[in-house]
Amino acid sequence: MIAPPKPDLVTVNIDGKEIAVPKGTNVIEAARLVNVDVPHYCYHPKLTIVGNCRMCLIEMGLPAVDPATKAPIIDPATGKQKINWIPRPQIGCGTNVSPGLHVKTTSPMVKEAREGVMEFLLINHPLDCPICDQAGECKLQEQSTGYGRGYSRFIEQKNVKPKRTQLGPRVTLDDERCILCSRCIRFSKEVAKDDVLGFVDRGSYSTLTCFPGKQLANNYSLNTVDICPVGALTSTDFRFKMRVWFLKQTNSIDPESSVGANTVVWSREGQIYRVTPRRNDEVNDTWMADSGRELFKAVNAPDRLATTASIDTLVAQAAALFKANSTPGAIAVVGSGRSSVEEQFLTKQLAAALNATASTHLVSRVGQGDKLLISADRNPNVRGALVTGLISALPSQKLTALAAAIDAGKIKVVVSVGEDLAAVGLTAAQLAKVSFVYLGTHVNPTSAAAQVVLPTLSVFEKNGTFINQQFRLQKFAKAVPGPSGATDDLIVLAKLVTAASARLSSAPLAAIPSDLGSLWKLLAAEVPVLGPITYANLPETGLLLDATPFVALPFVEGETLHFKPVAPAVAVTV
Amino acid sequence: MAVITVERKPLTLLERTYLPQIVGGLATTFKHLIAPKKTLEYPEQRPAIPPGYRGVPTLVRDPNGREKCVSCQLCEFVCPPKAIRITPGEISADQTDRAHVEKAPLAFDIDMLRCIYCGLCQEVCPEEAIFLQNQYSMSGYTRAEMVNHKDKLYELGGTLPDQHYKWDKKKTAEEHGNAH
Known about the structure:
The complex is a heterodimer of chains A (574) and B (180).
Chain A: E1 9-14, E2 17-22, H1 27-33, E3 57-63, E4 83-85, E5 90-91, E6 102-104, H2 108-123, H3 139-147, E7 159-160, E8 165-166, E9 171-173, H4 183-191, E10 197-200, E11 207-210, H5 222-227, E12 233-235, E13 248-253, E14 262-268, E15 271-277, H6 311-324, E16 331-335, H7 341-353, E17 360-362, H8 382-388, H9 400-407, E18 413-417, H10 428-433, E19 435-440, H11 445-449, E20 452-455, E21 464-467, E22 472-476, H12 489-504, H13 516-526, E23 543-544
Parallel strand pairs in A: 1-6, 16-17, 16-18, 18-19, 19-20
Antiparallel strand pairs in A: 1-2, 3-4, 3-5, 3-6, 8-9, 9-12, 10-11, 13-14, 14-15, 21-22, 22-23
Helix pairs in contact in A: 2-3, 6-12, 7-8, 7-12
Chain B: H1 13-17, H2 19-34, E1 57-59, H3 74-78, E2 84-90, E3 103-111, H4 120-124, E4 130-132, E5 147-148, H5 150-157, H6 166-176, E6 178-179
Antiparallel strand pairs in B: 1-4, 2-3, 3-5
């Protein structure tokens, strides 16, 4: 790898602590490096700086030099170079570091300035905290404890503004709470590239609104809710559902496309309430698509597969099917680009144990990429199948080879890992000709036709890893327990592998582990590129794998945020 | 340890007759016979409850009959034995009399088998909607009966005086105030 060029470092002094930071860093970010918190509302690290909330006021000074000779002026009292402190507070977000910059963030002037800003911000702010969804993660609440007065000197009537304006299908605006930071406006303009929001009117009458005839309806609209520092923009879906302090946060990955946006799943007592993005500067910055936030609703869907039979009984039924069709090549395995790396590895073991390596398939899902955080490849983990060796070529959308083999009468049993075969080009007649073992979460035509149905878990209910389009290995964790009657995919697959290898009886495989710790040891041994990695030591922001063996493959992804395809993407024919 | 031998005095003649003790005992008995009764005939008679008593937690309405709870769930959060369980809900915009409050509990359950009568819910409530009032006796034949649902809580709580009329003021401001 080529090391990035070393940025020019600038030494600054923040509250007496010297630190070297890259040139162009602003004071808020520099202070964060020395664990000094500069309160702010309008500043967001991924948006342009406007400096309109005035909360990040700091006191700054530069080393004094003689105007004529440019020689440093030494303070005789301390023997050090004199600092010319600017008599007025400056905004931290709009001040970039310069050599020798001195910053005070705790001086009386700074405290007084921030208290003044807080008092102005709270003048028209309603006493809504008991009903406000932002309570608990509200910057205004947080800074009020540090810089608030505790009581109001404002005896006039507060402004009254509309309380539930629908800005779009997913976003509700409470205008009274808005502090006019303009983060949402800048996000729509700069990141979502859908410039629909703006302020109208002046002074305390200023109101956030959509431009006439427009709606905040793009697929990234809920990010404005995330970045709103107060409770002005609320998610219509999550509104009044649960207070955030009850919710458990679990790090996860958005499975809707191969971008692999990092997410946090917020759940309470086994129920998921919302999904928000998690910052990863290499993948999704601090954003995610709205469509990925609704996927959790499938977890409690009424068409969820479950069984009252024990998993061992079902595996025994599958084993009987395998035994009855023991001629080599009679069994086909359809893996999934939605399975985790570990599951794909076990699927590969299963295919090997069933002598089905030659007839192992994967289904490709291709959609339109939006050039931001949804790529053309709607499978989150096709690269995992390549890395683990489940497949060696890119998958196709229709399983024509499998259909031909079924027509020829070669294939008698198909093991499908979560793939609906009716949707990938197999006709009802072809489906009727073979027996199915189906592992999956939801009811579909294949599960209805299957002889053995093994209910498994969704991505929110298990641990695992995905490899995204950058070949970045990222892990997701179990947020909620699975429903009763469904078993972890890894356990099901491990049991199937054991049952399948028993069929051969000649060389029984060593017991296949189904826990991530032992499984990763096996993975590391068999897949060299995953060598030093374990599930536990994988960083939360992922690990970039060596992609060189796969560069030649014509991946379908186009350009997205932080990703440029190596080879020009082939034309997508849907 | 030194042993001190205490010499017991012999009983006098009067003491040996036991008469003074019998008379004294009868005097006490007859005094209580005519003295006012201290015992309460519970449950027909109930004790006077002192102010500040912490009885069964209840939900109250304001003098205009509006439910005060906005389901902020702070009581649920603070409750040490986790007796409170709230399902929050939105007040739809067509309920004109209270749509300005926006939020109210869909369900509010207090498990009285868990409640320890600590009063933290009353202390933490920002809307002054939950009070531990005079009711002190709860009974039931099943565990389910011992869970007070929203209707029961309002029935027990009744109406208490309000000092602020926060939401009424809000509505007035909306109608006549600085609206634009």
